[in-house]
Amino acid sequence: MNNISVFPESFLWGGATAANQYEGAWNIDGKKASTADMMTGGTHTIPRRITKHIEEGVHYPSHEAVDFYHHYKEDIRLFAEMGFRSFRMSIAWSRIFPNGDDITPNEAGLQFYDNVFNELKKYNIEPIVTISHYEAPFALTEKFNAWASREMIECYVRYCETIFTRYQDVVKYWITFNEINSLIVPAGAYIAGALLVDDSGIFNNTAVDSTQLRFQALHHQFVASAKAVKLAHEINPAFQMGCMINYSHGYGSTCKPEDMLKALRMDQVNNMLSSDVQVRGEYPDFARRYFEENNIHIEMAEEDEAILKQGCVDFYSFSYYKSHVVGTRPEGDETQGNVFGGFKNPYLKANDWGWQIDPIGLRYVLNHVYDRYCIPMMVVENGLGAVDVVEEDGSINDTYRIDFLRDHIEQMREAVRDGVNLIGYTAWGCIDIVSASTGEMAKRYGFIHVDKDNEGNGTLKRSKKQSFHWYKQVIESNGENLG
After folding, report:
1. Catalytic residue positions?
2. Domain boundaries, the chain
3. Listed GO molecular functions (predicted)?
4. How far apart are CA 8 and CA 57, in angstroms?
5. What is the CATH number of domain 12-476?
């Protein structure tokens, strides 16, 4: 019996970011536009737009973001001051292969990440690298509607081979796709699949509402991920390869059997379908009926089933922000979420953006997933988006963020006591970055404040919030001193 009662000494405490929300320098040193670079700003009430061309006078948040490209030394020094043992980051594909299908990589882009990894190594911070995090070279979307085409697989694997070879001595942990399951809903079609044209050939600047097209694109990503895992293990057997799931946790609205069955089906399709393919190497049996009932016909190459079996991941990582309710509820009782939504839970509070706060749900998910797969797990995104107020003396008293994180870490600790093999936790948006969903800066997650507003104005000055000092003590005590 596993009697672990505290986090292991090797636990990977840290923070997480994404290149498209953090780096900026969108067209510098050989980089070309990514899909994220074609998304305008927005707010909680005004949705972002996708444009085919850069429109003059329009704000595109990712173009500068918070300029990690020129501030990486300062930021990593601050991460080290907090005591980070790990830093989850992503590589911008279009910084390495500007057009996506280039034969020769962009050396200036590779050198930038050389510099970042050297800086992390200087402070003994372990990089956890997401290979594709909600962006692809926009040229591939223009050329063949990106992941709708099987041609993307070869482009992705070439990109992987380049970065695996280049960074094989400095990166151990890799994640193939960020929140891969987000592709199953219209809201994830562009951000996760780079899809801009639906199956009728019509350009759509908000969401591709074609279930068939999105699941076909998802299959192409499954194959690409499996090929990348196999290749990675050949290049360096010490590589640890992970999947990353946008965990959509839903409770049955009542104990009525129909409500509970609906919650089960949602969990299977939204969460387990993608991880079953990546962890077990095959589509689950329940997918067959789901595909039949939704008129989904996955085109597979003859070798695809074997490829999926050969490319199973080594660890399971996921994002967890909120939960919701599934089943019979009155209309208009919806709650917001990270791509996935549902009904409100009357027992939970919500943040300023309507995401319901459920720390115990994290323990539930950790146990639920570990029981299914029994492989190491990481929580690689978890945090509170909130409006922070800078006081006259410059302080930011984000006690609400501390409360959120404390409650979730307490439940992670309980999950470890339950026997879950949890090896890492990287709080989302460890420094203020652009919101992927709304394009805002006002929706802040970080321990470090960045002076920038929704319109792109500001000095980019970094300053420590109260949560910075709190998280430092959490890491120093290996999760025991939660303040």
Report:
1. 179, 381
2. 12-476
3. 6-phospho-beta-glucosidase activity
4. 51
5. 3.20.20.80
